Prior knowledge:
Layout: E1 2-7, H1 16-25, E2 31-35, H2 41-46, E3 52-54, H3 64-76, E4 79-84, H4 87-90, H5 94-99, E5 104-108, H6 113-116, H7 122-132, E6 135-138, H8 141-147, H9 153-157, E7 160-161, H10 177-184, E8 191-195, H11 204-217, E9 222-226, H12 232-242, E10 248-252, H13 259-264, E11 268-271, H14 287-294, E12 299-302, E13 317-320, H15 325-337, H16 339-356, H17 359-371
Amino acid sequence: MTVLVVTNDFPPRQGGIETFVRSLCDQLEEVVVYTSRSPGDAAYDAGLPFPVMRDRTAMLLPTARVTKYAVRLMREYDADRVLFGAAAPLGLMGPALRRAGARRIVAMTHGHETWWAGVPGARQALRRIGDAADTVTTVSSWCADQIAPALSPAAVRRMRRLTPGVDTERFFPDCGGEQVRKGLGLEGVPLVACVSRLTPRKGQDTLIRAWPRVLAAVPSAVLLLVGGGPDRDRLEGLASAVGVRSSVVFTGPVPWADIPPYVDAADVFAMPCRTRRLGFEPEALGIVTLEASATGKPVVVGDSGGAGDTVRHGETGYLVDPYNPLPVGVRIAELLSDPAHARAMGAAGRDWVRREWSWDRSGAVLRELLDA
């Protein structure tokens, strides 16, 4: 039987949830996707091996019209299983799809559901979503701990962990880093990369504040900030104010397909992500950290939300206080000063990711949940 995937988040729109949902579709034998409209979607959908039905709106919400069309797709494609790409709010359609014949309903959560769990009204809606689904999945142990209090005891017992996988055929050692270094004029220098949108939550400002400590130990070290975002002007000003502007390189936006070589270019990957807005803006997981490990890089990661699940502290890298530049700088300097230790951590990270973070593993979990 066919799985109906109902999701607001789907390529060609870029983002972590979009990549997660799209990759899981490859793990299902028969699938039809119902999603929102997005620029360039017709050309993208034409190359897919399964049908995609686009709503007329740019944001898919659980309205009566959308629910009615989802029921129609279930009947047209003989779908008896439903996967909600993001539980909140689309999972509110669960009871109607159950009445229409859905045998199994799986509702995925990511990070934004953690604040739903703490807000009156949204909390009650999340409880209804959990009761309507056979399983609510979470991407990290931290997310599970935050969401569980909002669910009924029965829904909590049915929760399962479903994480993104890492494409180790895209992210692997020597996947183009030398070419990136050459293009940027950074050949032979100790290099630390942070690959992420330039936003306060990702902690690039902490890296800049930590850089004087890094330079004191490794004077030629360069910080490579890969990505665009609204925080760039502030970060450039901060680098000048701290006196490290000549040691910080901003690449600007980099297409998703070109990201692996930028990760590979680094000696160390660092992203001291932090929780903001009174706990409502955490790092739910941080797949880019795992991609860095797959590329054989030691990682330095901020202790925010579920980010701790992406590093084995002292084995594949370090979990650090994202609010304190001093320990961040100390850990980075330690890794740059001891290349053999850094390489050993990177190798351990790649082995761990290949063993426990594959898409095949994630697909097996999802198929089990849908077929139970």
